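PROTEIN ENTRY
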Amino acid sequence: MESLLDRWLWRQEYWLPPGVTWADMVETESVQYPQPRDLLITLPLSLVFIAARYAFERLVALPLSWKMGVRDTTRPVLAVQNVTLEVFYKQQSRSPSQSQFHSLSKQCDLSQRQIERWFRLRRNQDRPSNSKKFCEACWRFTFYMIAFLAGLAVLVDKPWFWDPSECWVGYPQQPLQTSQYWYYMTELAFYWSLLLRVSFDVKRKDFKEQVIHHIATIFLMGFSYCANYIRVGTLVLLVHDASDYLLESAKMFNYAGWRRVCDSLFFVFTAVFLVTRLVVFPSKVLYTTWYLSMESFQPFFGYYFFNALLLVLQLLHVFWALLILRMVWKFVVQGRVERDERSDEEENHTEEEEEEEEETRWERRKCTFDSKLPSLANNCVFNNLTNQRNGTPSRQPKAR
Protein backbone atom coordinates (compact mmCIF):
# COMPACT_ATOMS: atom_id res chain seq x y z
CA MET A 1 0.00 0.00 0.00
CA GLU A 2 2.81 2.40 0.85
CA SER A 3 4.59 1.74 -2.44
CA LEU A 4 1.31 2.24 -4.31
CA LEU A 5 0.76 5.62 -2.62
CA ASP A 6 4.32 6.66 -3.37
CA ARG A 7 3.87 5.68 -6.99
CA TRP A 8 0.49 7.27 -7.71
CA LEU A 9 -0.39 9.79 -5.00
CA TRP A 10 2.84 11.18 -3.56
CA ARG A 11 4.76 11.50 -6.79
CA GLN A 12 6.95 14.57 -6.48
CA GLU A 13 5.90 15.70 -9.96
CA TYR A 14 2.40 16.30 -8.58
CA TRP A 15 3.32 18.22 -5.45
CA LEU A 16 6.66 19.91 -6.12
CA PRO A 17 7.87 22.19 -8.91
CA PRO A 18 10.49 20.91 -11.40
CA GLY A 19 13.97 20.62 -9.91
CA VAL A 20 12.73 20.00 -6.35
CA THR A 21 12.48 16.52 -4.78
CA TRP A 22 11.19 15.14 -1.51
CA ALA A 23 14.79 14.94 -0.34
CA ASP A 24 14.90 18.74 -0.41
CA MET A 25 11.92 18.86 1.97
CA VAL A 26 13.48 16.84 4.81
CA GLU A 27 12.71 18.36 8.21
CA THR A 28 15.25 19.23 10.87
CA GLU A 29 14.95 20.18 14.51
CA SER A 30 14.84 23.87 13.66
CA VAL A 31 12.93 23.72 10.36
CA GLN A 32 9.47 22.19 10.05
CA TYR A 33 7.56 21.71 6.79
CA PRO A 34 3.86 20.87 6.33
CA GLN A 35 3.20 17.12 6.39
CA PRO A 36 0.05 15.36 5.08
CA ARG A 37 -0.35 13.52 8.38
CA ASP A 38 -0.95 16.86 10.10
CA LEU A 39 -4.37 17.06 8.41
CA LEU A 40 -5.68 14.10 10.41
CA ILE A 41 -6.15 16.33 13.42
CA THR A 42 -8.87 18.29 11.60
CA LEU A 43 -11.39 15.42 11.73
CA PRO A 44 -11.57 15.05 15.54
CA LEU A 45 -11.28 18.84 15.81
CA SER A 46 -14.35 19.20 13.58
CA LEU A 47 -16.31 17.03 16.02
CA VAL A 48 -15.19 19.37 18.79
CA PHE A 49 -16.58 22.26 16.76
CA ILE A 50 -19.92 20.46 16.34
CA ALA A 51 -20.15 19.82 20.09
CA ALA A 52 -19.15 23.41 20.86
CA ARG A 53 -21.76 24.66 18.44
CA TYR A 54 -24.46 22.55 20.08
CA ALA A 55 -23.65 24.03 23.49
CA PHE A 56 -23.21 27.56 22.13
CA GLU A 57 -26.55 27.65 20.35
CA ARG A 58 -28.45 26.53 23.45
CA LEU A 59 -26.55 28.33 26.19
CA VAL A 60 -25.63 31.58 24.42
CA ALA A 61 -27.39 32.09 21.07
CA LEU A 62 -30.91 31.06 22.11
CA PRO A 63 -31.06 33.29 25.25
CA LEU A 64 -29.58 36.11 23.17
CA SER A 65 -32.33 35.66 20.57
CA TRP A 66 -34.97 36.11 23.28
CA LYS A 67 -33.33 39.28 24.56
CA MET A 68 -33.09 40.71 21.03
CA GLY A 69 -36.78 40.07 20.44
CA VAL A 70 -36.71 37.11 18.06
CA ARG A 71 -40.22 35.67 17.88
CA ASP A 72 -41.67 32.64 16.11
CA THR A 73 -45.23 33.85 15.65
CA THR A 74 -46.28 32.31 12.36
CA ARG A 75 -47.47 28.73 12.44
CA PRO A 76 -48.03 26.93 9.14
CA VAL A 77 -51.22 25.05 8.44
CA LEU A 78 -50.71 21.41 9.35
CA ALA A 79 -51.15 18.79 6.67
CA VAL A 80 -53.76 16.13 7.27
CA GLN A 81 -52.23 12.93 8.58
CA ASN A 82 -51.69 10.41 5.80
CA VAL A 83 -49.40 7.43 6.36
CA THR A 84 -48.77 6.73 2.66
CA LEU A 85 -47.85 10.31 1.83
CA GLU A 86 -45.78 10.68 4.98
CA VAL A 87 -43.69 7.61 4.15
CA PHE A 88 -43.15 8.84 0.60
CA TYR A 89 -42.23 12.32 1.87
CA LYS A 90 -39.59 11.04 4.29
CA GLN A 91 -38.13 8.16 2.31
CA GLN A 92 -38.35 9.16 -1.35
CA SER A 93 -38.93 12.79 -2.24
CA ARG A 94 -40.29 16.03 -0.81
CA SER A 95 -41.20 17.25 -4.31
CA PRO A 96 -42.67 14.39 -6.36
CA SER A 97 -42.77 14.39 -10.13
CA GLN A 98 -45.99 14.42 -12.14
CA SER A 99 -45.92 10.65 -12.61
CA GLN A 100 -45.41 10.17 -8.87
CA PHE A 101 -48.29 12.53 -8.14
CA HIS A 102 -50.50 10.43 -10.41
CA SER A 103 -49.44 7.21 -8.68
CA LEU A 104 -49.98 8.65 -5.19
CA SER A 105 -53.38 9.94 -6.25
CA LYS A 106 -54.49 6.38 -7.07
CA GLN A 107 -53.02 4.92 -3.88
CA CYS A 108 -54.66 7.47 -1.57
CA ASP A 109 -57.89 7.95 -3.54
CA LEU A 110 -57.29 11.70 -3.64
CA SER A 111 -57.12 14.16 -6.51
CA GLN A 112 -53.74 15.24 -7.81
CA ARG A 113 -54.40 18.76 -6.62
CA GLN A 114 -55.05 17.51 -3.09
CA ILE A 115 -51.77 15.56 -3.20
CA GLU A 116 -49.87 18.63 -4.40
CA ARG A 117 -51.43 20.74 -1.65
CA TRP A 118 -50.54 18.13 0.99
CA PHE A 119 -46.88 18.15 -0.04
CA ARG A 120 -46.80 21.95 -0.06
CA LEU A 121 -48.24 22.12 3.45
CA ARG A 122 -45.90 19.36 4.61
CA ARG A 123 -42.84 21.21 3.28
CA ASN A 124 -43.98 24.38 5.03
CA GLN A 125 -44.19 22.45 8.30
CA ASP A 126 -40.46 21.72 8.04
CA ARG A 127 -39.52 25.35 7.48
CA PRO A 128 -37.03 26.37 10.18
CA SER A 129 -38.04 28.88 12.82
CA ASN A 130 -36.47 32.31 13.24
CA SER A 131 -34.86 31.17 16.49
CA LYS A 132 -33.09 28.31 14.73
CA LYS A 133 -31.86 30.58 11.94
CA PHE A 134 -30.72 33.17 14.49
CA CYS A 135 -28.72 30.57 16.43
CA GLU A 136 -26.96 29.34 13.28
CA ALA A 137 -26.11 32.88 12.21
CA CYS A 138 -24.87 33.74 15.70
CA TRP A 139 -22.54 30.73 15.73
CA ARG A 140 -21.05 31.54 12.33
CA PHE A 141 -20.76 35.22 13.23
CA THR A 142 -18.79 34.34 16.37
CA PHE A 143 -16.38 32.06 14.53
CA TYR A 144 -15.84 34.32 11.52
CA MET A 145 -15.21 37.34 13.75
CA ILE A 146 -12.67 35.47 15.88
CA ALA A 147 -11.06 33.91 12.78
CA PHE A 148 -10.75 37.28 11.05
CA LEU A 149 -9.13 38.92 14.08
CA ALA A 150 -6.85 35.92 14.57
CA GLY A 151 -5.88 36.00 10.89
CA LEU A 152 -4.97 39.66 11.14
CA ALA A 153 -2.87 38.94 14.22
CA VAL A 154 -1.07 36.10 12.41
CA LEU A 155 -0.45 37.96 9.13
CA VAL A 156 -0.06 41.64 9.95
CA ASP A 157 3.68 41.29 10.57
CA LYS A 158 4.30 38.99 7.60
CA PRO A 159 5.86 40.44 4.44
CA TRP A 160 3.44 38.63 2.08
CA PHE A 161 0.51 40.37 3.78
CA TRP A 162 1.69 43.66 2.30
CA ASP A 163 3.37 42.29 -0.84
CA PRO A 164 1.79 39.08 -2.28
CA SER A 165 4.91 38.41 -4.37
CA GLU A 166 6.63 37.44 -1.10
CA CYS A 167 4.49 34.29 -1.10
CA TRP A 168 6.95 32.69 -3.53
CA VAL A 169 10.29 33.73 -2.06
CA GLY A 170 12.16 30.47 -1.39
CA TYR A 171 9.20 28.30 -2.41
CA PRO A 172 8.66 25.43 -1.66
CA GLN A 173 11.28 25.40 1.12
CA GLN A 174 9.32 27.74 3.38
CA PRO A 175 9.32 26.76 7.08
CA LEU A 176 5.97 26.28 8.78
CA GLN A 177 5.30 28.51 11.76
CA THR A 178 3.20 27.41 14.73
CA SER A 179 0.71 30.28 14.31
CA GLN A 180 0.20 29.40 10.65
CA TYR A 181 -0.29 25.74 11.53
CA TRP A 182 -3.07 26.37 14.04
CA TYR A 183 -4.70 29.03 11.87
CA TYR A 184 -4.87 26.52 9.02
CA MET A 185 -6.01 23.56 11.12
CA THR A 186 -8.74 25.56 12.89
CA GLU A 187 -10.20 26.92 9.66
CA LEU A 188 -10.07 23.53 7.95
CA ALA A 189 -11.75 21.81 10.90
CA PHE A 190 -14.49 24.45 10.92
CA TYR A 191 -15.27 23.85 7.24
CA TRP A 192 -15.33 20.12 7.91
CA SER A 193 -17.92 20.76 10.63
CA LEU A 194 -20.00 22.88 8.22
CA LEU A 195 -19.91 20.11 5.62
CA LEU A 196 -20.88 17.46 8.17
CA ARG A 197 -23.77 19.58 9.41
CA VAL A 198 -24.98 21.02 6.10
CA SER A 199 -27.81 18.48 5.78
CA PHE A 200 -29.19 19.45 9.22
CA ASP A 201 -28.82 23.22 8.88
CA VAL A 202 -31.28 25.62 7.32
CA LYS A 203 -31.49 24.77 3.62
CA ARG A 204 -31.42 27.72 1.23
CA LYS A 205 -31.73 28.16 -2.49
CA ASP A 206 -27.96 27.96 -2.90
CA PHE A 207 -27.70 24.64 -1.00
CA LYS A 208 -25.80 22.96 -3.84
CA GLU A 209 -23.48 25.94 -4.18
CA GLN A 210 -22.80 25.80 -0.45
CA VAL A 211 -21.84 22.13 -0.65
CA ILE A 212 -19.57 22.84 -3.64
CA HIS A 213 -18.03 25.75 -1.77
CA HIS A 214 -17.29 23.66 1.34
CA ILE A 215 -15.82 20.78 -0.69
CA ALA A 216 -13.72 23.12 -2.85
CA THR A 217 -12.50 24.93 0.26
CA ILE A 218 -11.52 21.68 2.00
CA PHE A 219 -9.70 20.36 -1.08
CA LEU A 220 -8.07 23.73 -1.60
CA MET A 221 -6.84 23.99 1.97
CA GLY A 222 -5.75 20.35 2.14
CA PHE A 223 -3.84 20.47 -1.12
CA SER A 224 -2.32 23.89 -0.41
CA TYR A 225 -1.11 22.63 2.96
CA CYS A 226 0.51 19.50 1.52
CA ALA A 227 2.08 21.50 -1.33
CA ASN A 228 3.23 24.20 1.14
CA TYR A 229 1.05 26.94 -0.35
CA ILE A 230 0.63 28.16 3.22
CA ARG A 231 1.38 31.80 2.62
CA VAL A 232 -1.08 32.37 -0.19
CA GLY A 233 -3.56 30.07 1.57
CA THR A 234 -3.64 32.31 4.63
CA LEU A 235 -4.40 35.28 2.37
CA VAL A 236 -7.35 33.39 0.86
CA LEU A 237 -8.74 32.65 4.31
CA LEU A 238 -8.39 36.24 5.46
CA VAL A 239 -10.13 37.59 2.34
CA HIS A 240 -13.11 35.30 2.93
CA ASP A 241 -13.41 36.00 6.66
CA ALA A 242 -13.34 39.78 6.07
CA SER A 243 -16.97 39.90 4.93
CA ASP A 244 -18.56 36.72 6.26
CA TYR A 245 -19.02 37.97 9.83
CA LEU A 246 -20.78 41.10 8.53
CA LEU A 247 -23.31 39.01 6.63
CA GLU A 248 -24.03 36.83 9.65
CA SER A 249 -24.49 39.87 11.91
CA ALA A 250 -26.95 41.37 9.41
CA LYS A 251 -28.92 38.11 9.44
CA MET A 252 -29.07 38.15 13.23
CA PHE A 253 -30.59 41.63 13.32
CA ASN A 254 -32.94 40.69 10.48
CA TYR A 255 -34.36 37.75 12.42
CA ALA A 256 -34.70 40.01 15.47
CA GLY A 257 -36.67 42.57 13.48
CA TRP A 258 -34.11 45.38 13.77
CA ARG A 259 -34.63 46.56 10.20
CA ARG A 260 -32.52 49.72 10.20
CA VAL A 261 -29.50 48.03 11.78
CA CYS A 262 -29.91 45.08 9.41
CA ASP A 263 -30.07 47.32 6.34
CA SER A 264 -27.02 49.32 7.45
CA LEU A 265 -24.96 46.19 8.09
CA PHE A 266 -26.10 44.71 4.81
CA PHE A 267 -24.78 47.67 2.85
CA VAL A 268 -21.49 47.56 4.73
CA PHE A 269 -21.27 43.85 3.95
CA THR A 270 -22.09 44.49 0.28
CA ALA A 271 -19.28 47.00 -0.04
CA VAL A 272 -16.75 44.78 1.74
CA PHE A 273 -17.83 41.68 -0.20
CA LEU A 274 -17.59 43.32 -3.60
CA VAL A 275 -14.18 44.82 -2.80
CA THR A 276 -12.63 41.72 -1.24
CA ARG A 277 -14.15 39.02 -3.46
CA LEU A 278 -14.34 40.77 -6.83
CA VAL A 279 -11.36 43.15 -6.57
CA VAL A 280 -8.80 42.04 -3.98
CA PHE A 281 -9.15 38.30 -4.55
CA PRO A 282 -8.64 38.30 -8.36
CA SER A 283 -6.17 41.22 -8.47
CA LYS A 284 -3.98 40.07 -5.58
CA VAL A 285 -4.48 36.37 -4.92
CA LEU A 286 -5.27 35.05 -8.41
CA TYR A 287 -2.73 37.33 -10.02
CA THR A 288 0.07 36.20 -7.73
CA THR A 289 -0.79 32.49 -8.11
CA TRP A 290 -1.15 32.65 -11.92
CA TYR A 291 1.66 35.05 -12.89
CA LEU A 292 3.97 36.07 -10.06
CA SER A 293 4.54 32.45 -9.06
CA MET A 294 6.04 31.77 -12.50
CA GLU A 295 8.99 33.97 -11.52
CA SER A 296 10.02 31.37 -8.92
CA PHE A 297 9.21 27.99 -10.58
CA GLN A 298 7.89 26.36 -13.71
CA PRO A 299 4.28 25.13 -13.99
CA PHE A 300 3.50 21.65 -12.64
CA PHE A 301 0.39 19.64 -11.71
CA GLY A 302 -0.04 21.30 -8.33
CA TYR A 303 0.09 24.71 -9.96
CA TYR A 304 -2.81 23.93 -12.32
CA PHE A 305 -4.86 22.08 -9.69
CA PHE A 306 -4.49 24.83 -7.10
CA ASN A 307 -5.44 27.58 -9.53
CA ALA A 308 -8.40 25.56 -10.82
CA LEU A 309 -9.83 25.39 -7.29
CA LEU A 310 -9.28 29.12 -6.85
CA LEU A 311 -11.21 29.73 -10.08
CA VAL A 312 -14.11 27.64 -8.74
CA LEU A 313 -14.20 29.88 -5.68
CA GLN A 314 -14.13 32.96 -7.89
CA LEU A 315 -17.09 31.71 -9.91
CA LEU A 316 -19.00 31.21 -6.68
CA HIS A 317 -18.07 34.75 -5.68
CA VAL A 318 -19.62 36.04 -8.90
CA PHE A 319 -22.76 33.95 -8.32
CA TRP A 320 -23.26 35.31 -4.80
CA ALA A 321 -22.41 38.85 -5.93
CA LEU A 322 -25.32 38.69 -8.39
CA LEU A 323 -27.69 37.64 -5.60
CA ILE A 324 -26.43 40.46 -3.40
CA LEU A 325 -26.77 43.06 -6.14
CA ARG A 326 -30.30 41.82 -6.79
CA MET A 327 -31.12 42.49 -3.14
CA VAL A 328 -29.58 45.96 -3.42
CA TRP A 329 -31.76 46.67 -6.45
CA LYS A 330 -34.84 45.62 -4.49
CA PHE A 331 -33.80 47.99 -1.73
CA VAL A 332 -33.52 50.85 -4.21
CA VAL A 333 -36.99 50.08 -5.62
CA GLN A 334 -38.85 49.06 -2.45
CA GLY A 335 -36.97 51.10 0.13
CA ARG A 336 -35.65 48.26 2.28
CA VAL A 337 -33.96 44.88 2.07
CA GLU A 338 -36.75 42.33 1.81
CA ARG A 339 -34.92 39.16 2.76
CA ASP A 340 -31.97 36.98 1.98
CA GLU A 341 -32.28 35.91 -1.66
CA ARG A 342 -30.98 32.50 -0.67
CA SER A 343 -33.63 31.94 2.00
CA ASP A 344 -36.03 29.07 1.65
CA GLU A 345 -39.30 30.82 2.48
CA GLU A 346 -42.77 29.36 2.73
CA GLU A 347 -44.23 28.50 -0.64
CA ASN A 348 -46.74 30.95 -2.06
CA HIS A 349 -50.42 30.14 -2.07
CA THR A 350 -52.85 30.76 -4.87
CA GLU A 351 -56.27 32.24 -4.12
CA GLU A 352 -57.97 28.91 -4.63
CA GLU A 353 -55.51 27.16 -2.34
CA GLU A 354 -56.09 29.80 0.34
CA GLU A 355 -59.82 29.17 0.05
CA GLU A 356 -59.18 25.45 0.42
CA GLU A 357 -57.09 26.07 3.53
CA GLU A 358 -59.88 28.23 4.98
CA GLU A 359 -62.33 25.42 4.26
CA THR A 360 -59.97 22.96 5.95
CA ARG A 361 -59.80 25.16 9.05
CA TRP A 362 -63.61 25.47 9.06
CA GLU A 363 -64.01 21.72 8.70
CA ARG A 364 -61.71 21.14 11.65
CA ARG A 365 -63.67 23.64 13.75
CA LYS A 366 -66.91 22.02 12.57
CA CYS A 367 -65.67 18.56 13.56
CA THR A 368 -64.71 19.88 16.99
CA PHE A 369 -68.10 21.55 17.37
CA ASP A 370 -69.94 18.42 16.22
CA SER A 371 -68.06 16.33 18.76
CA LYS A 372 -69.17 18.68 21.55
CA LEU A 373 -72.73 19.18 20.26
CA PRO A 374 -74.27 15.98 21.80
CA SER A 375 -73.02 16.85 25.26
CA LEU A 376 -74.30 20.44 24.88
CA ALA A 377 -77.69 19.16 23.72
CA ASN A 378 -77.92 16.74 26.63
CA ASN A 379 -77.14 19.53 29.06
CA CYS A 380 -79.85 21.72 27.54
CA VAL A 381 -82.44 18.90 27.72
CA PHE A 382 -81.45 18.12 31.30
CA ASN A 383 -81.79 21.78 32.29
CA ASN A 384 -85.24 22.03 30.67
CA LEU A 385 -86.48 18.92 32.46
CA THR A 386 -85.16 20.25 35.72
CA ASN A 387 -86.88 23.59 35.23
CA GLN A 388 -90.17 21.89 34.36
CA ARG A 389 -90.03 19.73 37.50
CA ASN A 390 -89.38 22.77 39.63
CA GLY A 391 -92.24 24.61 38.01
CA THR A 392 -90.08 27.51 36.89
CA PRO A 393 -90.63 28.79 33.36
CA SER A 394 -87.70 28.63 31.04
CA ARG A 395 -86.19 31.97 30.22
CA GLN A 396 -84.89 30.77 26.86
CA PRO A 397 -86.96 31.81 23.80
CA LYS A 398 -89.09 29.08 22.22
CA ALA A 399 -87.29 29.55 18.94
CA ARG A 400 -84.17 28.20 20.55
